Amino acid sequence: MSVRVLAAVVLACLLPLSPLYAQGIPRVRAAVQAQAGWDAIRDGRHQEAADAFASAIAAQPRDPSLYFGAGVAAFLMGQVSTAQQSLEHALSLAPQLTSASLLLGDILYRNNDLVAAADVYQKALKYAPEDKVLAARLERTGRESDVQSGFFQSQGAHFTVLFEGPADEELARKALEVLETAYWRVGTELLTFPDRIIPVVLYTEQQFRDITRSPNWAAAVYDGRIRVPMRGALTDPAELDRVLTHEFTHALVQSLAPRGVPTWLNEGLAVMFEPGGQPWAATQLSSGTYRVPQGQLVGGFDGLTGDQARMAYAQSAETVRAMIEQAGALAVVALVQDIGRGDTFEVAFERRMSTSYNSFTASLDPAR
Ligand SMILES: [Zn+2]
Fold it and tell me: Ligand 1 mean position to 324 CA, how many Å?
């Protein structure tokens, strides 16, 4: 064997290991990109994950797992419609992909598309009849579907309001009016608009407790749908405006960052945009010296008593007010967006507020 032939053989053996060569094969390139995508998701770098899966799909457009990855990345960034499309594509290529069915079902459930969600779970169960999670999701969807089956519907430009009977039609109409106003008022201030129609469900008190399992002091909740118990208070137009604007702000925050936003930041924004929210918080803070410890404001407020919760909301609103005063509302929006892309709260805070979170809270008036 001549030296030249030997060199060619050696080269041929080495080439498959060479990254440059590997990049030339679409399947290998897709696998490398997919791995990078999953690594990025694991580390919370959602935008990088989305980019990696997009390159992988360009190289290997018939691989269902890549559409699933792209769907997960989009979902984590709050891009619900994109996530839905990717997951549907993944399932059209591989209907047995249970994890894609679970996420797609969840998205449809949050959109109040209960029939479509149930359909996704049912189809998935054909391929994985033993899957307990799928069965539980189907059961939950069915239960909620039963409650809503007799509900009426009122459609606005950006919201769908579901309510129990003709007696509530007037309230539903008012709710739509208030929500459409909030849509433009809060959306314009934050330069953010949700990319989907938001479902709003008006419940009786009992239905609200059964479905949401929220603490007694909760006036409403947002979990992909705005859920409102119809107390006497909601016949008070000012209260209706306050509660719906508050929940709509949560919908906006979630469209920017579905997870990772500290509770105080989410609630603080929601209170700030309530009509009269800011003066309410100031009055609340001056009414007593008790303060909820900062550490308790990060997680949920569910464990707090009604009095503690009021103070927690007021403290949250005050911190957000100070942030907006110092850096502007758009900096706070950018901070939430950074969290959505996968930054930790601390990193995002420092970038957008030009100071660390600890120095910022230390600089706040302790009497507040
Ligand atoms: Zn809230």
Answer: 18
